[in-house]
């Protein structure tokens, strides 16, 4: 049963529409003017709203604008948003008014006197579109979760990180993600990419700590055949591979000073040069960096370029250690248990309250990564219900 709201200052029209749509199996409420209708729409989540245009106190176009503005504001702030379609009704219909209504954000425009078939078809189509949008959103969330692009937790610390991600992801701003090993910096980077206009383009990850210093320049900028021993063919670097998308420089605090200089130039000029070549190649890349080091201290010790730091640190995001958000452990355990049991193709195992308290009492120097490993070990070694004694024995 869909929840509908009819806003019209003519009692006869309100009652007629309510009777018709109620007979179609919908739950219908009415409002006698735009001001009351807006208050009702802000308090309750409706599936479809019909609004007259010419009304006292607040006309339909102003009402529509306020609904659309509220929707945009919620999306930008990361709040749950009820994307309710609005159908405008007018006894003074003309093409200009209809076009203005659609441009403002209306789903459709119906003229008075209202044609019954048109009303029912519009209602059916609007509700189907809303349902499809909800299904698409849920599917996208499931796909992101399967790809590791999910930040689990409701603590204030993680809520702040999530809020920054929601605000920054759609922009082109460079981001510096800091936090201890295993805290989820890679997840933050993936969420930033997934929420950007570059989401359909590649996200290329580089672990700067895992690449020998003599190879990092070739890895980032590519090389030409014969430029050094082992360069048997031309090769595009990570900057070129990420062209149009996002380049994630993980553990950038371990990058050599020579490579830092070239990265700085690439950011300043939006171009790179392959090792062994003098030809500049234009690249369009959004750079996200991450580190577990204190880069300001690294700058004082001469290990990191201050100018590169300021280029990268446009938006800082500090990912909290698990010990600073232990209230999230129950949610994390539940999430990991479902994920791991699915991978193992076994029934989901439960953790009793004493087991959760035992996990919360521990110190997690390895953060989220360590907790997941412990949950996996407990699922494999313990019985159907995991107890505090299991935690003591296997964690």
Topology readout:
Blueprint lengths: L2 E5 L3 H13 L3 E5 L2 H10 L4 E5 L7 H18 L8 E5 L4 H10 L3 E4 L4 H31 L9 H13 L6 E4 L6 H10 L8 E5 L8 H6 L16 H4 L4 E5 L6 H13 L1 E3 L6 E3 L3 E6 L3 H6 L5 H7 L2 E4 L10 H16 L5 E2 L1 H9 L5 H15 L3 E2 L1 H7 L1
Parallel strand pairs: 1-2, 1-3, 3-4, 4-5, 6-11, 6-12, 7-8, 8-11, 13-14
Antiparallel strand pairs: 9-10
Helix pairs in contact: 2-3, 13-15, 14-16
Task: Note down, in words, how this protein is organized.
By secondary structure, the chain is an alpha/beta fold. The protein is built from 16 helices and 14 strands. Helix content is 48%, strand content 15%. β3 (48-52), α3 and β4 (86-90) form a beta-alpha-beta unit. α2 (34-43) packs parallel to α3 and α13 (329-344) crosses α15 (367-381). The longest helix is centred in the N-terminal third of the chain and has 31 residues, at 116-146.
Short description:
The chain has 395 residues and is an alpha/beta fold.
User: Number of helical segments?
Assistant: 16
Distance between the termini: 49 Å
- List the helices and strands in order: EHEHEHEHEHHEHEHHEHEEEHHEHEHHEH
CATH topology of the largest domain: Rossmann fold
What keyword list fits this structure?
395 residues, alpha/beta, Rossmann fold, Helicase, Ruva Protein, domain 3, 3 domains, five-stranded parallel β-sheet, 16 helices, 15% strand
């Amino acid at each position: 049963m869909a929840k509908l709201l009819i806003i019209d200052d003519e009692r006869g029209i309100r009652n007629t529409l309510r009777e018709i749509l109620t007979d179609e199996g919908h739950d219908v409420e009415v409002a006698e003017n735009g001001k009351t209708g807006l208050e009702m729409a802000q308090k309750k989540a409706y599936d479809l709203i019909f609004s007259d245009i010419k009304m006292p106190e607040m006309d339909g176009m102003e009402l529509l604008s306020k609904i659309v503005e509220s929707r945009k504001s919620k999306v930008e702030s990361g709040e749950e948003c009820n994307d309710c379609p609005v159908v405008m009704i007018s006894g003074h219909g003309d093409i200009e008014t209809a076009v203005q209504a659609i441009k403002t954000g209306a789903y459709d425009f119906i003229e008075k006197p209202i044609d019954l078939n048109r009303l029912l078809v519009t209602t059916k189509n609007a509700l189907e579109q809303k349902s499809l949008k909800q299904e698409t959103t849920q599917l996208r969330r499931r796909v992101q979760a399967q790809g590791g692009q999910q930040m689990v937790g409701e603590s204030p610390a993680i809520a702040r990180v999530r809020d920054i991600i929601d605000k920054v992801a759609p922009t082109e701003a460079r981001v510096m993600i800091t936090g201890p090993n295993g805290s989820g910096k890679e997840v933050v980077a993936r969420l930033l990419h997934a929420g950007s206009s570059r989401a359909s383009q590649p996200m290329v990850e580089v672990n700067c700590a895992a690449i020998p210093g003599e190879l990092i320049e070739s890895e980032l900028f590519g090389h030409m055949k014969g430029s050094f021993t082992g360069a048997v063919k031309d090769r595009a670097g990570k900057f070129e591979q990420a062209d149009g998308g996002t380049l994630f420089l993980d553990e950038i605090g371990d990058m050599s000073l020579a490579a830092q200089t070239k990265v700085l130039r690439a950011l300043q000029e939006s171009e790179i040069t392959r090792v062994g070549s003098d030809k500049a190649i234009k690249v369009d890349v959004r750079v996200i960096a991450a580190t577990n080091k204190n880069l300001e201290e690294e700058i004082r010790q001469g290990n990191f370029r201050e100018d590169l730091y300021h280029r990268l640190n446009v938006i800082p995001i500090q990912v909290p250690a698990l010990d600073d958000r232990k209230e999230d452990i129950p949610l994390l355990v539940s999430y990991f248990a479902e994920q791991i049991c699915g991978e193992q193709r076994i029934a989901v195992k439960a953790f009793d309250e004493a087991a959760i308290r035992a996990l919360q009492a521990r110190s997690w120097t390895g953060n989220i990564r360590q907790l997941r490993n412990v949950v996996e070990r407990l699922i494999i070694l313990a019985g159907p219900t995991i107890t505090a004694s299991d935690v003591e024995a296997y964690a």
